[in-house]
């Protein structure tokens, strides 16, 4: 199955796939509103604004699996992101990224780009996956990797 065939739900709970992002470089991120890394929304938005016209799509997937740091509803999450960080890149419905109920997208990206020592588990919020224009998962970035440090990798793919 291609990454573009995986069903996802938008923040407004509309079922879609990633097909509209075919041919774009995607940065897929599991996000949270009440995390120490939450200010990374600003850097993600900055990357999106700088490169969206060149083919970058930043995709935010809220997750409440780490310290219950994303307790809000979809409307609350979207409002928080827009008001506090001016986020206008696509946000999706809250997902699990680990375990039995992990979303198929995160099962796919963790298989394609495992973490340290081959671990498939995501360790915390704001783990990032860089996907090339052909849908290949190129690289995984840790929560501590700030968006601006990923910029050179994005530029190479654009």
Strand order across the biggest sheet?
4-3-5-6
Q: What is the helical fraction, as a range of percent?
A: 25-40%
- Assigned CATH class: Alpha Beta
**Which oligomerization state do the chains in this entry correspond to?**
single chain
The rounded Rg comes to: 14 Å
Order of helices and strands: EEEHEHHEEH
Number of strands: 6
CATH topology: Glutaredoxin
Low-confidence stretches: none
Strand portion, in percent?
15-25%
Name the CATH homologous superfamily.
Answer: Glutaredoxin
Structural class: alpha+beta
Mean pLDDT: 95
Overall outline: globular
CATH architecture title: 3-Layer(aba) Sandwich
Number of helices: 4
For the biggest sheet, the summary is:
4 strands, mixed
What is the total number of structural domains?
Answer: 1
Family: Belongs to the glutathione peroxidase family.
GO molecular function: glutathione peroxidase activity
Protein name: Glutathione peroxidase
Keywords: Oxidoreductase, Peroxidase
What can you see in these coordinates?
- By secondary structure, the protein is of the alpha+beta class.
- Helix content is 28%, strand content 17%.
- β1 and β2 form a beta hairpin.
- The model has no long low-confidence stretch (mean pLDDT 95).
- InterPro entries: Glutathione_peroxidase, GPX_AS, GPX_CS, Thioredoxin-like_sf.
- It comes from Fictibacillus barbaricus.
- Keywords: Oxidoreductase, Peroxidase.
């Amino acid at each position: 199955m291609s990454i573009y065939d995986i069903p996802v739900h938008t923040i407004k709970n509309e079922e879609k796939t990633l097909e509209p992002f075919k041919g774009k470089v995607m940065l897929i991120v599991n996000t949270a509103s009440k995390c120490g890394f939450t200010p990374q929304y600003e850097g993600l938005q900055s990357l999106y604004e700088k490169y969206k016209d060149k083919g970058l799509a930043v995709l935010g997937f809220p997750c409440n699996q780490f310290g219950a740091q994303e307790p809000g509803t979809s409307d609350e999450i979207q409002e928080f992101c827009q008001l506090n960080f001016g986020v206008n890149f696509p946000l999706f419905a809250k997902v699990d990224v680990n375990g039995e109920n992990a979303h198929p997208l995160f099962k796919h990206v963790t298989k394609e780009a495992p973490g340290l020592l081959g671990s498939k588990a995501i360790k915390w919020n704001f783990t990032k996956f860089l996907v090339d224009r052909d849908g290949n998962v190129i690289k995984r970035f840790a929560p501590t990797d700030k968006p601006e440090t990923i910029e050179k990798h994005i530029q190479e793919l654009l």
